[in-house]
Design goal:
Layout: H1 19-26, H2 31-97, H3 105-121, H4 124-127, H5 133-161, H6 168-248, H7 262-314, H8 318-335, H9 341-369, E1 378-381, H10 382-392, H11 394-400, E2 403-406, E3 412-415, H12 417-433, E4 442-450, E5 453-459, H13 492-502, E6 507-510, E7 520-526
Parallel strand pairs: 2-4
Antiparallel strand pairs: 1-3, 4-5, 5-7, 6-7
Helix pairs in contact: 1-7, 2-3, 2-5, 2-6, 5-6, 6-7, 8-9, 10-12, 12-13
């Protein structure tokens, strides 16, 4: 058999980056710069939008203040002034008909209302300097003073004394001038009101236009940002990911080249360096695989030689051993008691050695067969297999006066029936063998489901195992007692461990309470089937021994 090659020491990985690619990457904008430029533009646009919006809102506020706080009170005062002058004219005309002071009240109240309206209107001349409200107001006051001086006051005095009334036609002409001046003032005020209304509407329209413009600019910016993000970042990343995916899928020869910002180009260079390293590793692995194929063929030849050796050990080597054992037994039967005591002892030693050698060869063959001669896993009824194992050990049970108690309802597990039966035979046989003196052995076999595996227990009331020897009992050829005390080859528990591990489980010793005698072996078997390794037909036909420990 060819000796395995020593493990190849892996050297540290040192990726070689392309200098030209790295120089090109240093000349490109970084992602930070792209994001900084974008954030700066977005910030400037946001400040501009806020400024325009605030200006538009301030325009609306100013136009609204001018309309409702300035122009509308002025129009109302102008209308009150016109009504006050008309009340004065009405009072004078009524007093001329019947000289009663009650009919003169509209005149008196009208003058007071006129004065109040004039006080309200006078400051608006400074508020609207271009509207000519002061001139129009002065014209109204002059016409009203002329009418009162030349007609109203003389008419009131004449009516009070009974003197002749001044010419009414002259009074109407003078008051028509007052009415015309008041109408002109009202027209000016209405024009200013319409202008203020137009300014308010214009401010509202401007705000709407600013809002639309901000929305359009934001949409254009987002569109440009999306296009830029896709072109500058997403598309290079997508191309880099596609090239990397080709490498992952097996196209190790595909070059990986990054594009776009500096970080993506550098990432592409790192991935390309890693791809180059992987390609070198693949080349080395292919070369190593070729060497491994050669060694595998050598190993197959070695295995065939080993199988041939197993065949020889199973047949050719056992044949002369059986002859030696047979002739030693013939010598013992024919010449036993006829020779001296020392000769009888020598013959007994020879017979015992030949028999132990035969058992050892059978046990070694059984140990090597585990996992090599199975025909596949199948459902194994542990009730049936445990009882078959106990039946094969019936002579040991009868000899020791013991009892094997198999619990009802043992599960059905996937496995190799012959191997599991051999496993239970070894464990039950050990329990029967290592019993206490003058105490009939009692062996119990039970099972409990724990998660996705069955835990099988084989417990006894025998001599037990000291804790310091627990790790040694599953090692092949390890014996805790001499052959003169307990017979066996020391392979039984090692064989049991190998069978359990072949079925995907584990085995251990559970000492339980310190004051309880005996030993409990626990092992696990999976609930779901596990595929066994392929069988080796070269070892078929080897028969495991019944006495393994």
């Amino acid at each position: 058999m060819t000796a395995p090659a020593p493990a190849r020491r892996r050297r540290p990985v040192r990726l070689r980056l392309d200098p030209a690619t790295m120089e090109d990457a240093q000349q490109r904008w970084t992602l930070r710069r792209w994001f900084t430029v974008g954030a700066t533009i977005l910030g400037l646009l946001s400040v501009l939008a806020v400024a325009l919006g605030a200006w538009a809102v301030m325009r609306i506020a100013g136009a609204r203040t001018a309309l409702y706080d300035d122009v509308t009170p002025a129009v109302t005062a102008g209308q009150n002034l016109s009504a006050a002058l008309l009340d004065q004219e009405t009072g004078v005309r009524g007093y001329t008909i019947l000289a009663n002071d009650e009919f003169l009240a509209p005149y008196v109240n009208g003058r007071a209302a006129e004065a109040a309206a004039v006080d309200v209107l006078r400051p608006f001349d400074r508020t609207f300097p271009g509207a000519g409200l002061g001139t129009a107001l002065q014209r109204v006051e002059t016409a009203a003073d002329t009418w009162r001086r030349d007609y109203a006051e003389p008419t009131i005095a004449a009516a009070r004394t009974g003197a002749p009334i001044p010419d009414a036609q002259q009074g109407r002409q003078l008051f028509n001038e007052v009415r015309a001046a008041s109408a002109g003032l009202l027209v000016g005020l209405q024009d200013e009101r319409l202008a203020a209304r137009q300014r308010l509407d214009s401010s509202i329209t401007f705000l709407a236009v600013v809002g639309i413009a901000i929305t359009v600019v934001a949409a254009v910016f987002l569109l440009l940002a999306a296009i830029g993000l896709r072109k500058v970042i997403l598309s290079p990343i997508r191309r880099l990911a596609g090239q990397t995916r080709q490498v992952v899928q097996g196209s190790v020869g595909t070059r990986v080249l990054g594009s776009g910002p500096r970080e993506i180009v550098e990432l592409g260079a790192d991935v390309e360096a890693m791809r180059s390293h992987i390609q070198r590793e693949v080349d080395e692995l292919q070369e190593a695989n070729a060497q491994l194929d050669d060694r595998t063929r050598d190993l197959e030849r070695s295995n065939r030689d080993l199988e041939q050796f197993a065949y020889v050990a199973s047949h050719d080597l056992q044949e002369p051993l059986r002859k030696v054992s047979s002739f030693c037994q013939l010598l013992q039967r024919r010449y036993g008691g006829k020779l001296d005591e020392r000769a009888d002892q020598y013959i007994e030693f020879a017979v015992d050695g030949a028999q132990r050698m035969q058992r050892l060869i059978n046990d070694l063959l059984a140990f090597s067969r585990v996992g090599r001669t199975t025909t596949g896993f199948e459902p194994v009824d542990l009730n049936k297999v445990a009882r078959a194992a106990a039946t094969q050990l019936a002579s040991a049970v009868e000899e020791t006066g013991g009892e094997v108690a198999i619990a009802d309802g043992l599960p059905t597990v996937p496995g190799d029936p012959s191997l599991i039966q051999q496993l239970l035979m070894n464990l039950i046989g050990n329990a029967l063998k290592f019993h206490r003196a003058d105490v009939p052995p009692l062996v119990r076999v039970d099972a409990v489901l724990r998660g996705d595996e069955w835990e099988i227990s084989v417990s006894d009331n025998g001599i037990g195992i000291e804790p310091e020897f627990v790790d040694k009992i599953f090692v092949i050829f390890q014996r805790l007692h001499g052959r003169e005390v307990y017979a066996g080859t020391g392979i039984g528990l090692a064989l049991a461990k190998k069978i359990v591990e072949f079925h995907g489980g584990r085995i251990w010793v559970d000492h339980g309470a310190a004051d309880e005698p005996g030993t409990t072996f626990r092992l696990t078997l999976p609930v779901s089937p596990a595929a066994p390794p392929p069988a080796d037909p070269a070892l078929a036909g080897a028969v495991p021994s019944k006495e393994s420990s």
